Amino acid sequence: MTWQGERWTAEQVLALAPDAASRKAGSKLGTAGPWSEAGSSDEGTVWGLCKGSGSKPYQTVVDIADAAGPAYKCSCPSRKFPCKHALGLLLLWAGGDGALTRGQEPDWVEQWIKGRRQRAQDKRAAGASPPAPSADPEAARRRAERRAERITAGATELEQRLADLLRTGLAAAEQAGYGLWEETAARMVDAQAPGLAGRVRELGALPASGPGWPVRLLEECALLHLLDQGWLRRDRLPEGLAATVRSRVGLAGSPDGSPVRDRWLVLAQYDTSDGRLTTRRIWLYGEKSDRTVLLLSYGAAGRAPEPALPVGLTFEADVSPYPGAGQLRAALGEQFTPPAPAATRPPGVTTPDAAARYGEALRADPWLDSYPVTLGRVIPTPLDGSWQLADADGGTALPLTPSAGSRPGLWRLVALSGGAPVTVFGECGHRGFTPLTAWPEGAGEAVPLC
Q: Is the pTM of the predicted complex or chain greater than 0.85?
């Protein structure tokens, strides 16, 4: 196999970094100085020996041609994926200045590549086989019923606690402190309703969080009450909304829609962590289907989830949607081509259209915090100590979320614009717009902002 992909940009490489520290350390290793015996092959493999603090250099190899995104191996003790050595090697390769020789893979590289590609082939073969029937369908049904009963008991208890809170007054929430909410969340975990537990913990951060906190607390309590009632009356709901309620309370579903084969553009990738679990969100745009889908993956704290897909690359693959009204989550299926740079970008809309799309999505999922939207021809503009994205061709604008205004990505966006219109992909919600990726006016590569 001869790999036909193009070299990535430095921005696309750095978008793979698990954190800011890795991004900074990897950038320092993106020059030829610390590397020896660095090379690349026609099969899409890059390797090299990186000088470290010990007498023996670190062996680093990256499989770029993997359809699931780049795969890494390094002999360093780091638990981050990719480590700084893998990032530095990819930056060296992306520079294309002749620092890597083209040739045959050394034995240590060849052994790793053959082993992992064989495992991938075996996994695909296993996935093509029909799933084995459950050993005891009746036992599985009883387990599902028992869990539903626990969730129902938890939702009923939560309704009582919300009623008590409103009866005694919201001021009592400020006096009780965070312990009240954490204890309630623990009860929801015991009820096997992690979705309810997560929303309860969010409530605990609202009392005394600044001017207007009682209003925000009341709004979130109302949404939690709505979710409780949705679960308790799920048999009366339309199937799509009932599936959304099940997902929101924390019942993991499985993809049940027909696979959509398309050429998918990676719009954004970012990780969030609660100290116990790292969640990776990858937004994809289907060039033929004109669909935007979300890939979710999880990893233990300190370990980056998979896959890793650099922003601005495209690949052909199947994705299967999850059940639920208005749900955009999908599962990545068979991938037919490795990720490669692309000049395409999703079509943009105006800021009023973006707000309208979020409003329409709320009808299907009232608990939706934000909705993916691409804004076309907008200009980042300061306003009263904050920022907004203003339509270049009109008098309307969307404010940025407070968290977006404090990120380094904001200054990359401002620098990319320079006062001229840009195309921006992000998440539009009730708190404002969070920019995730931007493209300059006319031609130009995607610039990650997160």
A: no
